Amino acid sequence: MATEASLGPVPHAPGTGRPVPEAEPALVERWRSGGGELVDLLAQVRERLGGIAAFRLGLGPTVLVADPQAVQHVLARHPDRYVKRSHRARLLIGDGVLAATGVAWKRQRRLLQSQFTGTGMRRYETRITEAARITAERWDGYARTGQTLDVGREMRRFGLDTIWRSLTGHPLDDATERELAAVAAVVAALPTLPADVTDAQDAVAADLARIDAVARHAIETARSGATGPDGPGLLHILVDAATDRPEYTDRLIRDELVTLLVAGHETTATTLTWLYLLLDRYPAAREQALAAGGEGSAQRRQAIQALIHETLRLYPSAWILPRYAAEDDTLAGYAIEAGTDILICPYLTHRDPELWPDPESFAPRRFTTPDGRPTHPGAYLPFGIGPRACLGLQFALRESTVLLEHLLPAHTLAFQSTPTKAEYSITVRPAGPTPATLEPPLT
Questions:
Q1: What is the CATH number of domain 66-439?
Q2: How far apart are CA 198 and CA 216, in angstroms?
Q3: Whole-model pTM?
Q4: CA distances from 95 to 89, 90, 358, 393 (A)
Q5: In the chain, what are the domain boundaries?
Q6: Tens of pLDDT along 406-443?
């Protein structure tokens, strides 16, 4: 392992801390020439230099932060010093709450936050349960006919149905599902889009137009006062906000709608797909979860939630969280200069063997056994931590739990093939299709 003394220092303001250890340029060049994922470079940097380390992709340093205490410092204790500048999906979500900053973000967050906690969550219970029931019925049909299904597509369909019901009060119909497939298409294209904003928008213009058309129709329907069979949805709250909040233009309402569509189904679908791929490798984990208690029991629910949490440990919804140092700071004794790019990487923090014994194994009991997981808040952050943590955390856990309560006892999956690697975009996605058939349950 290289020593700090052998590395070039990152420039810093005098007297504010010691230099952040920086990776040798040769390491970055080898990574560039090998065509690897960014996570491969970050893993090498952390392995050589530890949980706070720098590397250079351009003229200035980028600092990787994977140490739990430093993670908490950046995200939870000093979010005013480490800010978001933009979002990788901005051409899709516009000025939605995920991409918004400053005063605008605070206003948008305040309006949405009450919808995803306490009373707000209870109004979605029936919609989540109905979407899970429809999925379970569809799987029963696959089991009877022996039809091959694609697990990833099934999970996207469930997640999209759930968030569409919650937004509009309507179940997802086939035509809307076909048009909103453009959301997944844009998300998948993001890593390969041109750096120029105009060129990037042109590359996905047709898909963006399809998304905009669906959003425009949904907004017009909500503004007309019409509600679906489940009653008014979150979109109605956004439309009503425009009455006394002039910032809620049709464009901002569209951006919030698309943001909620992306965040409300893409992350959940990806997590559930990974969970089933992991159960294929670790079938005993399913049996243990079902044996924890009877149908509807608190014990079974806790065990199912442990499956979800362990999946999120290995494949966090937010695998990387970029920030920008707005001012000089001292981070765990290291000097951070204003203007430095910061990369928080939950994916690496969750796989740190000093925090998580045998970190590459799927072991849901970490989340049901006393002292089975680290207690530091910066050690487990699949949805982020601090004021910009994901609004939909409770929603995502609830819908995933309800679906698995329906599906796990009734079916086991036999995959015909499984992806051999992951894709690192907004989420960590299985790289390829996930075809499977349903078998009678093992328990």
A1: 1.10.630.10
A2: 22
A3: 0.92
A4: 10, 7, 41, 21
A5: 66-439
A6: 999 999 999 999 999 999 988 899 999 999 999 866 54
